[in-house]
Design goal:
With 184 residues, the protein is mainly α. It has helices spanning 60-83, 92-107, 116-130, 133-145, 149-174. Fluoride-specific ion channel. Important for reducing fluoride concentration in the cell, thus reducing its toxicity.
Length: 184
């Protein structure tokens, strides 16, 4: 076997003393897979986005739709507050508004053939303006200031519990299966 190289199984190349040669394309350090770009000196690094987070550019039309829905929802909330004022004691009107808004948000998937602007109008727009955390928090603070700490606690816990249950009920209604003879 003079002049001929001995055939060596690649799995045993190291055992025969032969180097294993694997062709690779070498990229510059900044273009290698998984390489992180270092920020310039004196700047803060950009925050990392969680996996699956999609960020879309804000569109002027979408902002207008949400603003119109939010203004309408806020006027509806204010109107209900004027028609049925809370009076002294427990703020039933605000609690009812928040629970009703959460129920309606749970029903939102029932809107058939909706485009994203209708979803924006009804969800963060109308229902976002209709429900209110700021009034809820201010009324709870007012109850504590007036010395009604237990009533304030009941209001805070009761509103959250009722709102979550209402959203769950709306969602359950929106996703229930239709009977076979529903359209006949």
């Amino acid at each position: 076997m003079q002049g001929r190289a001995a055939a060596v199984d690649p799995a045993h190349a190291g055992a025969a003393g032969l180097p294993r040669v694997v062709p690779q394309r070498v990229h510059p350090p900044d273009r290698r897979r998984g390489a992180r770009q270092l920020p310039p000196v004196g700047t803060r690094p950009l925050p990392r986005r969680p996996a699956g987070l999609v960020i879309r550019a804000l569109r002027a039309g979408d902002l207008v739709v949400v603003a119109v829905g939010g203004a309408t929802g806020a006027v509806l909330r204010w109107s209900l507050g004027e028609l049925v004022p809370d009076g002294d004691g427990f703020p039933w009107t605000t609690m009812s508004i928040n629970v009703l808004g959460c129920f309606a948000l749970g029903l939102l998937p029932l809107v058939r053939h909706r485009d994203h602007r209708l979803t924006l109008l009804l969800g963060p727009g109308l229902l976002g303006g209709f429900t209110t955390v700021s009034t809820y928090a201010e009324q709870a603070r007012g109850l504590v200031t007036d010395g009604d700490t237990w009533l304030a606690g009941a209001y805070v816990v009761g509103t959250v519990a009722a709102a979550v249950l209402a959203a769950w009920a709306g969602r359950a209604l929106a996703h229930r299966p239709e009977p076979e003879d529903a359209l006949t």
